[in-house]
Amino acid sequence: MYKPKPLKYEYDALEPYIDSETVNIHYNKHYLNYLNKLNDLLTNLNYDFKYTIFELIGNISEFPLEVRDDILFLAGGVINHELYFDSMSPKNHEPSSIILDKINKQYGSYDNFKKEFIGNANVLVGSGYTSLAVNKEGDLIIINTSNQDSPLFYGLKPILTLDLWEHAYYLKYRNRKDLYIDAFFKLIDFDSLNNRYEKIQTK
Questions:
Q1: If residue 132 lies in a helix (H) or strand (E), which one and from where to where?
Q2: CA-CA distance, 101 to 175, in Å (whole number)?
Q3: Which residues contact 55 (CB under 8 A, 6 or more apart)?
Q4: What is the pLDDT of residues 15-60, one digit of tens each?
């Protein structure tokens, strides 16, 4: 069975930008619900868990057609949440290293990148995510995905993601999604982001 990925910080570590109650509920109720439902579904199919959760997506054709959408939805929910939680921390908030070099090269400056990312996030309709991903050519791409779709479904490798489902922000920000989006940039863990980008570069 797939195991939960522990948070790397305490529930209150992201305050004042994201409150401890939101992090607690988001992790224990929403994220773990996706994980548990995925495990239950696959167990009922007598699946032997031979693939990683990422490989599961690439081998979805091995599963009965009528459950593929459910598997992808639940797996996407696990993958998206794990990346979202890992995208943030109470430290390492200064853009740096090779990801900053790549951002400057492609977007002209970090401020330009930030403006484009925030612009994308603010126009996402309904529930979903705004992610920074790497395409097959090695370029960065900012992409909005709906519900629990992952950039992985489109041949992209996500390295940063912002959860824009209401449960991610509503307790603190109510309908001011824009304030939550701005706050996300005060929480990005650039050490973690650089590590993910470096791993992609070395493959």
A1: strand 128-134
A2: 35
A3: none
A4: 999 999 999 999 999 999 999 999 999 999 999 999 999 999 999 9
Q: Could you give the CA distance from residue 74 to residue 45 in angstroms, rounded to a whole number?
A: 15
Residue 23 Cα distances to 56, 160, 191, 192, angstroms: 27, 18, 21, 19
Distance CA 167, CA 114 (A): 23
Reported as half-sphere exposure (CB side, CA atoms, 13 A), residue 84 has a value of 26
> Which domains, ranges and CATH numbers included, belong to the chain?
20-86 (1.10.287.990), 97-202 (3.55.40.20)
Tokens of residue 57, six digits: 């997506």
Q: Which amino acid is at 29?
A: K
Q: How far apart are CA 160 and CA 88, in angstroms?
A: 9
Of 86, 43, 77, whose CA–CA distance to 57 is shortest?
Answer: 77
